[in-house]
Amino acid sequence: INEKKGKGIPVECRVCKICGSESEIEDEFHFLMVCPFYDKLREEMYKALNIDCELFNSKSQLKVLFNELLADYAFYPPLRMIGEERYVKVADFVWNAFTLRATMLNADSDE
Question: H/E element holding 24?
């Protein structure tokens, strides 16, 4: 994702090759929260965090997973989880999703 930014590829040309969308820009938010290709992994992460995925569907809410706006969600018990434990679960999702992404991109380049 950052590789495309570093190469100076215009934003409008950074479409997601994983989900096949012609209009979805592959940015961090798309990768972490939107891309349907990672739905199963995302659901597993939400389940591990005891989070209702319907509450997390915007860029500002994504910050909650990384402990930034936690005070805004103090009413939501799963987010009171110790920060380190939450980070490990989010990191597991990111690692598994990147691994899956790399596998898919490598398979596409072999064809």
Answer: none
**Tokens encoding 78:** 């799963």
C-beta neighbour count of 42 within 10 angstroms: 19
pTM higher than 0.85 for the full model? no
**CA–CA separation, 68 and 108 (whole Å):** 37
pLDDT tens-digit series, residues 66-88 = 554 445 555 555 555 556 777 78
Angle ∠(100,106,109) on CA atoms, nearest 5: 145
Beta strands in 1-111 (DSSP E): none
d(CA 35, CA 6): 22
First to last CA, the chain: 22
SS3 category, 105: helix
